[in-house]
Design goal:
There is one protein chain. The protein is mainly alpha-helical. 35% of the residues lie in helices and 7% in strands. The strands form two sheets. The chain has a two-stranded antiparallel ribbon with strand order 1-2. The chain has a two-stranded antiparallel sheet with strand order 3-4. The longest helix is centred in the N-terminal third of the chain and has 53 residues.
Length: 167
């Protein structure tokens, strides 16, 4: 008489499952992989903010230079005692009157003011930046009656080792 044989290829043998040791080892491996990825996400987030800072500074500085060129070319009213730089950052986005235009069109230098990515979210975009006046020396910048340059208010240091204020 032949006895019934069980198949060696059976996936669901009675009592089959994971042991406690297998589960603990699997959870430990996943935890090690997750803890290794956390610093990388922090660096990636900081790098993204730094790219936004670079782009914002570039846009603002190009707009300031364009405003100065328009003032020097006589498109913007400039008094004799003025430097030709914008009086504040807001005029770059809200526009100024083109005095050469018969219809009094406005000249816009930015679509919108970028905000400093390292500033708090409660600040307005134009208040998130530190400005340097044309009258102030480069080693001790201060605000004044015009905007010659912009820089970040952040005290933090970038991934390249240079403080954001010096970018």
């Amino acid at each position: 008489m032949k006895t019934p044989t069980t198949s060696k290829l059976s996936w669901c043998a009675p009592g089959a499952g994971f042991t406690l040791i297998e589960l603990v080892v699997t959870v430990a491996i996943v935890a090690i992989l997750a803890s290794g990825a956390m610093p990388l996400t922090h660096v990636a987030a900081q790098r993204a903010k730094e790219q936004d800072l670079r782009a914002g500074l570039r846009q603002l500085r190009q707009a300031i230079d364009s405003y100065k060129d328009a003032a020097d070319n006589g498109q913007i009213e400039k008094k004799a005692d003025q430097s030709g730089y914008p009086p504040n950052l807001r005029v770059l986005a809200y526009g100024v009157d083109d005095i050469k235009s018969v219809e009094k069109h406005k000249i816009y230098f930015l679509r919108r003011l970028p905000r400093d990515p390292f500033a708090s979210d409660t600040e307005k975009a134009e208040d998130s930046w530190m400005t340097r006046s044309y009258d102030s020396p480069p080693d001790s910048p201060r605000e004044g009656k015009d905007v010659f340059d912009v820089f970040s208010r952040s005290e933090a240091v970038g991934l390249n080792g240079i403080p954001y204020k010096q970018w």
